Amino acid sequence: MKAIILSAGRGKRMMPLTANQPKPMLNVAGKPLLEHHIERLKAAGICDIVINLAWQGQVIKDYFGNGSHFGVHIEYSDEPEGGLETAGGIIQALPMLCEQDDSFIVLNGDIFTDYDVSSLVQLQLGSIAEGHCEAHIVLVENPKHNPEGDFCLAHQPLNQQKYTLSGIGKYHQSFFAELGAGFIKLGPLLRSGLEQHKVSTELYLGAWDDIGTPERLKMINDKLGYSDVG
């Protein structure tokens, strides 16, 4: 099984820290966010990783190379300037992600979490036509910057409590089967998928932070006892 770490975002809210580097290369606890993700995937037995790139993508290539120094194998999916949005980036990378397995794990490159992705490895997905869910997303309690949340749990009515999309999930390639290449957002696809019972959910109550602003980056580093926020 492979995983993709989404790293193509511009990171405008992080300026000036992202003037010369992509957001997932910002340091948390003394090393880039991306390095934390790669270590977590490797610990779960996932050593084939795709990283999509747009803004300052060469910085990521220069640091990680082919992944051999980190005990993994990394491929890169280069996107045009401005990126392709989340679903568009995943769709472009599908030929790499589904060479040997129809399902793959997705991680946002700009989060910091202790979520154990090995639980996703065991999760079985398939085509809705065969009675399976085509995607599984991890939700978290709503942070201060997203008090209204994004999605309800799949077993709840759609007008119940909403939780925040963590940026962690697993997808079967059939979830994207009828979509062409281009700039495509993931949120609307997930909402539609939940309504059609194509998407399953879980609520994670462990450590999770969205490193979306310089203030939040400083906050998480202060909490972990690190002063370097660059």
TrEMBL record:
InterPro entries documented for this protein: Mannose-1P_guanyltransferase, MurU, NTP_transferase_dom, Nucleotide-diphossugar_trans
Pfam families referenced in this protein's UniProt entry, alphabetically: NTP_transferase
SUPFAM superfamilies the UniProt entry points to: Nucleotide-diphospho-sugar transferases (SSF53448)
GO MF term set: transferase activity
Residue ranges annotated for the Nucleotidyl transferase domain, each copy included: 2-126
Keywords: Transferase
UniProt-listed Gene3D superfamilies: Spore Coat Polysaccharide Biosynthesis Protein SpsA, Chain A
Protein's UniProt keywords contain Oxidoreductase: no
Domain of life of the organism encoding this protein: Bacteria
Keyword Ion transport (UniProt): no
NCBIfam families found in the cross-reference section: NAMPUrTaseMurU
PANTHER family, sorted: SUGAR-1-PHOSPHATE GUANYL TRANSFERASE
Name this polypeptide is given: Nucleotidyltransferase family protein
Species whose genome carries this gene: Pseudoalteromonas maricaloris
Lineage start: Bacteria, Pseudomonadati, Pseudomonadota, Gammaproteobacteria, Alteromonadales
